[in-house]
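hey m, so remember when u said the tokens were messed up on ur end? i reran from scratch. heres the input so u can diff it against urs
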Amino acid sequence: MEYIEKVLEKDIDIFIAKIRIDEEKMLEEISLSSQDKKKYAAMTSKKRRQEWLTYRVLLSNVLGKDFLLEYQSNGKPYLLQPKKNISISHSKEYVAIAIAEKKIGIDIEKIDKRILKLKEKILNSREANRFVAADERMLHIIWGIKESVYKQQDEEINYLEDIEVKKIDENTAEVQVKNHLQKVEFFEIDNNMIVVSY
């Protein structure tokens, strides 16, 4: 499987791959547990099955066939084997996975002008004043920051009030999450914005 690998820090690995459509071939490339086989069989959306299989094949390629991926009751994934933190996201065309020793969150979104209609749902009043000239690229960065930070947290947080983007530089952002500052990096691949919070 072809994929892009990016290392943000010495223990943060990002893997990105195009979503594959060849379900039968992907099923031959991995071994699913009986629980995963039931989950796969219950999926009615073809696109969802393809995303689900793509990131399992990707994990098999980067971690080996013995990886064990489970889900918390809130739907967040975690790795039992190897014992590391993981975050998974997908866009229309890609899956993105972040693996690290520390808690991590990742988001990938296809850049699209339709996001301009969601500006009020993305920015709180302070951010709206700070990023008054935000275009679709900037809004995708901010939305990705909020999504990735949300995925990183153990507790429920409010997108608008608990996550505030203070400053955006060339490929990093300063973000306040409740009472602490958070490190976030972002980059673009094939008109997709990838944001990683750690």
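this time it looks ok to me. The chain has a mean pLDDT of 94. if urs says something different then somethings off w ur setup not the seq
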